User: Fold these one by one.
Assistant:
Number 1:
Amino acid sequence: MARPLKWTEKKIQSLKDAGHGRGLGKDYIPWLSVTDVSSLGRSRRVFSHKTDRTHELLSDVEYRLFLVLEWMSDVVDIREQYPLNREMTLTIAQQLGLRHPYYPGTQVATVMTVDFFVTRMVAGTKSFMALNAKRDEEASDENSMLKLEIQREFFESNDVPHHTIFHSQIPRQKTDNIDWIRSALLKPGEAEPRPGFFSGLTARMAADLSGSATHPSTTLSDYCIAFDERHGLEKGIGLRVAQILMHERVLRVDLSSPNLAAEQLSAFVMTAQRGKLRAVGGA
């Protein structure tokens, strides 16, 4: 169970000195971790092959929004629990006539954080976007909305688009499918049976699916079972290989499908040929 931090000015300075809230990519350190706060939702630590680090996500809504962001090809970095300059938020709150949040039971002004500070790269141009992930019921919570108003003004003054995403706006089926697809990637510390095991199999499956021997009405599940049998693989390896191909966008899918494994092969589109696959787990 998380043990909330006892917030003091000394503690805030120590976090700054330790680099919290700074860095890019794999070097970024979130301002808060799952052990620092009490969460009403299910907090979790999630490794991302895109950023090559473990992310600190404080709720189910944050996790589902994270899945969408990680899946987006133009998103190149995701910084969660990103701290805002406290002097600026205090000034903004005063200008708006709002009470700046303070840590409960203290006279210490809160270091406000946005759930996600995202870097995008579109046509060679870098841009930033700030996102908060909230449950629908928080829209009627006055304190929550006042904090968002301070954040909105903060990012507007810094020319960064800021959006609040409510859980009902995040497509459940899509994120369930993304979650299932990414579950096939190598976990930190997990070793392949031999070097190049999965890259070899993804190339083999990609070439196979690009050919004319497969019947379009065959389901992906049945095809993968046959793939395992043909190549003497442990049961389930073929489906994992197909998931990796989906993650690599070699095998294009409709993420609104209620059951990707049960879809016929005709529902999938191949977009790359053997020898052009990126390494398993690549961004």
Number 2:
Amino acid sequence: MRNENAFIRPQVAVGAVVVRGNAVLLVKRGTPPSQGLWAIPGGKVNLGETLQNAAEREVREETGLSVQAGAPIYAFDVIEKEGESFRFHYVIVDVIARYIDGDPAAADDVTDVAWVQAHDFDRHDIDPNTKRFLRLWWRDKPKFCAD
């Protein structure tokens, strides 16, 4: 018997890697997947929406900030099964995003928002996929963004 909520195919989602000075924008997720963990802001891409438009919309909805989204810099899968059915299968594409303006405030499906510096990554309960990416990416950050 097929679970009516099961995914028929992977869904596309986007994350926005927003850097300001020596910090990256993280949100504490209020809903699955990664509920209760810190992660890059983002969410599902709507039909007809570009990755960049989706990233800008998601950051605005979740934090109130305005950003300008750029090129993809990382992609990964989030797959979670529940018995024989799939609970989630997201293909997530992270894009670089330039901070434009605003003061961060948690909204939509996040419970907190913060600018986090690399030396503070271990002080936050960061989603494992996000933490792995940030550690690798932070070493090469100057290639992607000029402060």
